[in-house]
Amino acid sequence: MTAIESYVERAPLPGLAGVVRTVWVQRTGATASVHRHLPTGGVEIHFPIGGRPQLLGPLTGPEIEIIPAGTALVGVRFWPGVAPLLTTVLDDLVDQRLGLAELWGSLADRLVEAVAGAGTPERALQLLQDHLLREFRPAAVRVDPLMRAAVQALMPWQPVTVDAVATHLALSPSQLRRRCLHAVGLSPKVLQRTLRFQGFLALAQAGANSVAGLAVDAGYADQAHLSRECLRLTGLTPRQLLGGDVDRCGCGHDHTASYRPFLAIRSRPPLRV
Of 116, 175, 232, 250, most Cβ neighbours within 10 A? Predict the structure, then answer.
């Protein structure tokens, strides 16, 4: 088995920017491929063209997927705390995969038919995004305003404690934890650690001189701290994950569309409580 032959991320349609972090088109070649899904704090839709789409719940560790040869699929990654209409709360979906037909019924069947006849993966991705714009308008998307504020406060580069975030939102720590589990699927502390690691990956994508430098810039105590978190979240060391270099993803893909938002908030003023 080989690495993914082609994986291209891009920014979502403007109307989805507040709920979708990135979208992508993925293709495999003549052999089956291995893909390592990493925790991002959000849910994802994985939609193989001609196959059955799935929703991947929030991850707490790596998920290894074997993708058959000759597969073309499109994907959507939502921001933490945001999800399409579901019949359950997100803490029931942690580290789980569910068929969209289980969640959407006949709506998923109609979408499968439309995507199968799209002609190209790029057109299929457009159809999927158009569907999300129609069916999951902002008023219909499951969003807890306080949890959206909590996610923003827990994003990388913020030297803030979970208790401080709770105070900022006029919640007790236990209330913040309960609402975060319900809306995001993860506790505030686990979400903060996940987002910090996403910040590390954003810096690696942008280019840096050393793993030690990346660790400090991303908010880790030191390189050993980063290494422990990397093993916990990905199953690999930082150098294994990055392919021995720190100026690119080890898979060779361009994840700029996914990580640009993390870098854009680095200069944001710290949270005041």
Answer: 250
